[in-house]
Design brief:
Layout: H1 3-12, E1 22-26, E2 29-33, H2 38-45, E3 57-60, H3 70-85, E4 90-92, H4 99-105, E5 114-117, E6 131-134, H5 137-146, E7 148-152, E8 156-162, H6 171-182, E9 191-195, H7 197-200, H8 204-212, E10 221-223, H9 228-235, E11 255-260, E12 267-269, E13 277-279, E14 290-294, H10 295-298, H11 301-311, E15 321-325, H12 329-337, H13 340-347, E16 350-351, E17 372-375, E18 391-394, H14 397-406
Parallel strand pairs: 2-3, 2-5, 3-4, 5-6, 8-9, 8-11, 9-10, 14-15, 14-17, 15-16, 17-18
Antiparallel strand pairs: 1-7, 12-13
Helix pairs in contact: 2-5, 6-8, 11-13, 11-14
Length: about 425
């Protein structure tokens, strides 16, 4: 069996499972974000009185944080009341950040666990050797009631990444390149494992980017085999034992792909599809209005550091707005401590409170009709960040920073 299958087998009380099998598995952690008040409504509509285990439930206020509307404020109010009523102590309020950054930082994510959340990018946590997947409001309400959910055991695709990266090429470039080659429907309800020497040499923040965007090819979950890098991150935060499952040597993958990234250059997903991937240098003369560095895909310390180093001592182009939103308060504090935030502000960046902000077109930097934005976020379909008449180029933090500096889409200094 694959390591992910072993997780499902363990959580469903079975010795073996196979692809296509339906299992009822016990959940280790269920997360609700502030988009989904419907979870609470469905919980009560199903006759819920008490959640199955308050210690295995967490709420994270990240999409509308701080609240930009009365409706969002009311949602937060009702969620706070629910957590108080249900004795749910793991409530991360508006001062904490994006759920997929906050949960690992808080020691809630570890190898061998089964994690569900009301967010499609829960695949991020495969970077820690967990089975992480997004679910809908009624599924999450069911989990709150019973502590388990049904799953179809997914086929597993393996993506081996070899070679050595050129200077300035980041994990975002790698995953965009893979998406451009394989397409958005390459892994629908399948698991994607990332492996190979390039992955082995990536820090945790960059591994999270690969797993995060596996959902953009339809993946149900993702996986990177835990190693010393994983343990160094996890063991500083998790105060209990965990199990690292090993994939059997004779396991047969549904498909295997090889990507040698030695010649990979900085790329971008051009409007209006995340698999519409081109080399940045081939994009033509694309004038931009805004650059956004942040989100669960591009708002970690390494991302902010990259941008700060590129822009240090320089000013962003006239007429361009640069918005930087750290993925969490921990990221914000570390970036301040290292001087990255001050440096970016000197360059002309606007810094906002940790959260999702403009990634979903909520607030803190939505874009208008006819505007063009270079964003480190994961999606670029029409209306994602505001007007349906705007254009979004999804790119790495390095490309985003250079673009802010020159006022056009560009991957490096000319």
């Amino acid at each position: 069996m694959h390591a992910l299958w072993k997780i499902l087998a363990e959580k469903s009380g079975q010795e073996n499972v196979e692809a296509g099998e339906i299992v009822n598995a016990e959940i280790d952690l269920a997360e609700v974000n502030d988009l989904y008040l419907q979870v609470i409504k469905s919980f009560y509509e199903m006759g819920g009185k008490k959640v199955w285990d308050p210690d295995k439930v967490t709420f994270v206020f990240d999409h509308y944080s701080p609240t930009p509307t009365i409706k969002a404020a009311e949602n937060h109010k009702q969620m706070r009341e629910f957590c108080d009523e249900q004795n749910i102590e793991k409530l991360f309020d508006i001062n904490k950040g994006v759920c997929h950054q906050v949960m690992p930082e808080a020691g809630l994510v570890y190898p061998g666990m089964l994690l569900t959340a009301t967010d499609s990018h829960t695949t991020t946590h495969g970077s820690f050797g967990a089975f992480g997947t997004g679910v809908g409001a009624t599924d999450l309400a069911t989990i709150l009631l019973e502590g388990e959910l049904w799953f179809r055991v997914p086929e597993v695709i393996k993506i081996n990444i070899t070679g050595s990266l050129k200077k300035g090429v980041m994990a975002k470039d790698i995953i965009l390149h893979i998406l451009g080659e394989l397409g958005q429907d390459a892994a629908v309800y399948k698991a994607v494992e990332f492996a190979g020497p390039v992955v082995d040499n990536l820090e945790m923040a960059e591994r999270m980017v690969l797993c995060n965007m596996s959902v953009e090819m339809g993946a149900k979950t993702s996986y990177i085999k835990p190693d010393q890098t994983t343990r160094e991150y996890i063991d500083k935060r998790v105060d209990h034992d965990y199990t690292v499952y090993e994939t059997d040597a004779d396991f047969e993958y549904d498909e295997t792909y090889e990507f040698d990234v030695s010649n990979l250059e900085q790329v971008t997903a051009a409007p209006h599809s995340i698999d519409n991937v081109i080399n940045v240098k081939d994009a033509g003369d694309v004038k931009i209005d805004q650059v956004f560095i942040g989100t669960c895909t591009g708002g970690r310390v390494n991302d902010i550091k990259t941008a700060a180093e590129i822009l240090k001592g320089k000013k962003i182009a006239k007429g361009v707005r640069l918005i930087v939103i750290p993925a969490s308060d921990e990221v914000m504090r570390e970036s301040m401590k290292k001087g990255y935030i001050d440096s970016l502000m000197e360059s002309g960046a606007a810094i906002s409170a940790p959260g999702c902000g403009p990634c979903l077109g909520a607030h803190q930097g939505v874009i208008a009709d006819g505007e063009t934005c270079v964003s480190t976020s994961s999606r670029n379909f029409p209306g994602r960040m505001g007007s349906t008449g705007a254009k979004i180029y999804s790119a790495s933090p390095a490309t985003a920073a250079y673009s802010a500096l020159y006022g056009k889409l560009i991957g490096g200094a000319e």
